[in-house]
Write a structure and sequence with these properties.
Distance between the termini: 31 Å
Largest sheet: 7 strands, parallel
Shape: globular
Structural class: alpha/beta
Number of strands: 7
Strand content: 15-25%
Length: about 250
């Protein structure tokens, strides 16, 4: 591994880092030398497992339980990271939930929950994290959006709106922070093999594969690789962009 991809000495926070795509991102940036703070909200055992995987591979990791949709909890958590580690250099806004249902029957609470976690949560975390980055004149923020934010999807109107909102947030933040040497980008996964998709029936999985030009589902590691590129020195001149990791499903 070339020195060019090193994140040694960098302090990173990955929200929703306990499983799936978040865990793969934590492992990847931990393997590149970053000290990773793994955020979770409901599953301490999964967060512990993520931490162990990083430490067993020789990396450094800590766990933080907080709700990204709660402004006070977010500020406290980021203050704790900076107090313990001296700075926060990297933020990956990955925390996301779904509350699927057709619009005609969707409860207002299901709209609010998804928008609060998936969109407002990214805003709150970036707002708190960017303060130190601006002082230091260095920072990397990556927002995990989705192919659904571009194509839309019946039964996911709340999720699609939140993920599309993240794209606008990414571009606007990139413009605001560029003068301080902070890059802000997005990664938009397509259909990725995670706990969420593995519960789908074989028939539905085959149907999904038929929509993907590369004729397969992606892996969390595919997404983690794109994130690592944007965080590393190779991605230093990339900002305000969204990398689509979807096997060609949306072009």
């Amino acid at each position: 591994m070339g020195e060019i991809m090193s994140l040694t000495g960098k302090i990173a926070l990955v929200t929703g880092g306990s499983r799936g795509i978040g865990r793969a991102i934590c492992q990847r940036i931990g393997s590149l030398g970053a000290h990773v703070f793994i955020n979770y909200v409901a599953n301490p055992a999964a967060a512990e497992e993520s931490k162990l995987l990083i430490e067993n591979a020789g990396g450094r990791a800590d766990i933080l339980c907080f709700d990204v949709a709660d402004g006070e909890q977010v500020q406290e958590a980021i203050k704790q990271i900076v107090t313990e580690s001296g700075s926060l250099d990297i933020l990956v806004n990955n925390a996301g939930i779904t509350r699927d249902g057709l619009m005609a029957r969707m409860k207002e609470t299901d709209w609010d929950l998804v928008l609060d976690t998936n969109l407002k949560g990214a805003f709150l975390c970036a707002k708190a994290a960017s303060r130190g980055m601006m002082k230091k004149k260095w920072g990397r923020i990556v927002n995990i959006t989705s192919v659904i934010g571009y194509t839309g999807n019946a039964g996911q109107i709340n999720y699609a709106a939140a993920k599309a909102g993240l794209v606008g947030l990414t571009k606007s933040m990139a413009r605001e922070f560029a003068s301080r040497n902070i890059t802000v980008n997005g990664v938009a996964p397509g259909y990725i093999v995670t706990d969420m998709t593995s519960s789908l029936s074989e028939g539905i999985q085959e149907k999904i594969k038929a929509e993907v030009p590369l004729a397969s589902l992606g892996t969390p590691e595919d997404v983690a690789g794109a994130v690592a590129y944007l965080l590393g020195e190779d991605g230093r001149y990339v900002t305000g962009q969204v990398l689509h990791v979807n096997g060609g499903m949306y072009m």
